[in-house]
Design goal:
The protein is of the alpha+beta class and 229 residues long. The protein is built from 9 helices and 5 strands. The chain has a 5-stranded mixed β-sheet, with helices on both faces.
Amino acid sequence: MKIKDLSSSERPRERLLSSGPQALSNGELLAVLLRSGTASSNVLDVSRSLLRSCDGKLVRLSQMDINELQREPGMGPAKAAVLAAAFELGRRFADERAGSPGRIITGPHSVYEMMIPYLKGVPHEECWVLFLDKRQRVCSRERMSSGSPDGVQMDPGTIVRLALSRSARSIILVHNHPAGNPEPSPEDIRLTQNLARTASACSLTLLDHVIVCDDSFYSLAEEKLFTSI
């Protein structure tokens, strides 16, 4: 059935205009973005098929690149570009809401809120560093490296040199565990201890190492797994 053959109460765009976006399902919201279907499938069918390919998970859908999206039934470059743009706007909105840079770090939860827009759903490990001023405000945030699903390179010397070039007084190390368990590995603990010693030798303080998962985080500072001075 074509979209135009549905009643106005069943058409996604009309439902959004009359009831607001909160009233729509994920499939209906995708249909509004995609706008049109194919000769054999209406836009709702295309949207629902796309969601099924991701087990209904928007996180998985956000991980698909332009080429992967175009391989899905009914998806071409224009529709793939619209979805990629929508997810990127969502990430930027979440980042603005988190309030960085310039945000004062009050603990690992504020680090998690700041970084989850960048790390949620990322299928590989990434290493980020927050550089803070003397009031523990974020003055800069840098992605240091990107690795595999099981590991990432984090070099203490490179991190400290960059911190000094940013005139930072303290640093917070952040990386993600895509598998969903935020507890640190022995290598994570060893690297954190090395970074704390290297930072201290250069009059910097490592405040924390926060490991982020989609729905949880782990603070090595809270668990006292390293000494910052």
